[in-house]
Design goal:
single chain, binds zinc ion, alpha/beta, globular
C-alpha cells in the first residue's frame, strides 16, 4: 500500500469514526462492555460422508526456536519464511488440534492434545470436549499417530488418572518398539530422553487396554493407517473414508504449514529421520493435492482443516470454508 493510499484510508476512517460518535453527543445512554479477557473454547464440526467429525483445540505452545530449528536451510531463509507469514522469527506458535470422529457406531479420537502438561497456553482439550458434548467415558477408541508428548499426554491427567477410561488405545507398532526400547533410551542424547520417559509414564499401566497396529490396516471403522515414517520411526497418517468422501489426518507429516508445507524439503531437527520425513511429506502433500483431498494437520491453525495446492515452490494450505450446517 502506498503512503498516499494509507493516509487517505486513515483519513476516511477518521471521518467514519466522527460520524459514529454523533449519537453519543445527543446524550444516548452508553453501556460499557467489560472486556472478557479470555479466549473461547475451540470446537468445530464438519462432515465426511455420514461421519461427523469434531476438531477440538487444545491450545498453542509458543516454542522458542533458533538457527538449529531446520537442519538443511539457512537460518535467514527460515526467518524469512516465518516473517512472510506474519509470524515471529524467534518463536514458533505450535497449535494442537485433536480430532473426534463419530462413525455412527464408534467414537474415535485421533491424538489427544497435551491437557496442560506442556504449556500453560495449551490446556483446552477438556473444555473443548465438554463444549462439544462429549463424555470422555463414551470414547471407544483413541488412535495415536506417534508417541511424541503433544499427541499422547491427553491420555492421562497430570496426576496420572485415565481421561478416557473405557477407550482402547491403539498405537503404531513401530512407534511402540522404538520408544519402549531400553537400548534406544540409553543411546538417546540427553535432550531426547524426556520423550522416552514420558511415553513410559503415559502407557505403563494401560498396556492391557492397548493395541498395536501395522500400517495398511483398518484401525477403526472407515479409518485406515498409512505409514508416514520419518518424523518418528512409526509416524502414521490416518485416512478417514465414509460414503464417497475421504480425508487425511496428517498428524505431524508437516508441522506449521507456512514453513514445512511451503518448503516440504526442509528437515526439522525434531524429525528422527529428517530425509525420510521430507520424502514422506512430499509424497503425502502431493497425493492430497492431486486427489484434492481434505486434510487435517495437527499443528495447522485451528480448525486445522484445508486443502493442499501445488505452488511453483512447495505447496500451500488453502483453509476449508466454514460449514454453517452439517
Ligand atoms: Zn506434534
Amino acid at each position: 500500500m502506498s503512503e498516499a493510499t494509507r493516509r487517505s484510508l486513515l483519513a476516511g476512517a477518521g471521518v467514519a469514526a466522527a460520524g459514529l460518535s454523533l449519537p453519543v453527543a445527543t446524550g444516548r445512554a452508553e453501556a460499557a462492555a467489560p472486556a472478557n479477557g479470555r479466549q473461547t473454547v475451540g470446537v468445530y464440526r464438519y462432515k465426511v460422508g455420514s461421519y461427523e467429525l469434531t476438531a477440538l483445540h487444545d491450545g498453542t505452545y509458543y516454542r522458542p526456536i533458533d538457527d538449529k530449528f531446520v537442519k538443511n536451510a539457512a537460518w535467514p531463509d527460515v526467518q524469512k519464511a516465518l516473517a512472510d507469514n506474519f509470524l515471529p522469527t524467534d518463536t514458533l506458535p505450535t497449535p494442537f488440534t485433536a480430532l473426534m470422529v463419530n462413525t455412527g457406531s464408534k467414537l474415535v479420537l485421533i491424538d489427544t492434545g497435551t491437557a496442560g502438561q506442556l504449556a500453560a497456553t495449551a490446556s483446552g482439550i477438556g473444555p473443548a470436549l465438554t463444549a462439544a458434548g462429549f463424555d470422555p467415558k463414551a470414547v471407544d477408541v483413541v488412535l495415536i499417530s506417534h508417541l511424541h508428548p503433544d499427541h499422547i499426554n491427553g491420555i492421562k491427567t497430570k496426576e496420572g488418572g485415565l481421561v478416557f477410561p473405557n477407550a482402547e488405545v491403539r498405537v503404531p507398532a513401530a512407534e511402540w518398539t522404538y520408544w519402549m526400547d531400553d537400548a534406544n533410551l540409553s543411546a538417546a542424547p540427553e535432550a531426547a530422553r524426556p520423550g522416552f520417559l514420558n511415553a513410559r509414564r503415559i502407557f505403563k499401566d494401560i498396556a492391557k487396554n492397548l493395541n498395536r497396529f501395522e500400517p495398511g490396516k483398518e484401525v477403526a471403522p472407515g479409518i485406515t493407517a498409512i505409514a508416514a515414517h520419518g518424523h518418528t520411526p512409526g509416524h502414521t497418517v490416518f485416512a478417514i473414508a465414509s460414503g464417497n468422501q475421504s480425508m487425511l489426518a496428517l498428524g505431524d507429516t508437516a508441522h506449521l504449514p507456512s514453513v514445512f508445507v511451503r518448503h516440504p524439503e526442509w528437515q526439522a531437527t525434531i524429525d528422527v529421520d529428517g530425509a525420510m520425513a521430507a520424502e514422506t511429506r512430499m509424497k503425502m502433500l502431493d497425493r492430497a493435492a492431486v486427489d484434492k483431498m481434505l486434510v487435517q494437520g495437527y499443528h495447522f491453525p485451528f480448525p486445522a482443516l484445508g486443502y493442499i495446492a501445488r505452488r511453483s515452490e512447495g505447496y500451500e494450505v488453502i483453509p476449508a470454508m466454514w460449514q454453517p450446517a452439517l
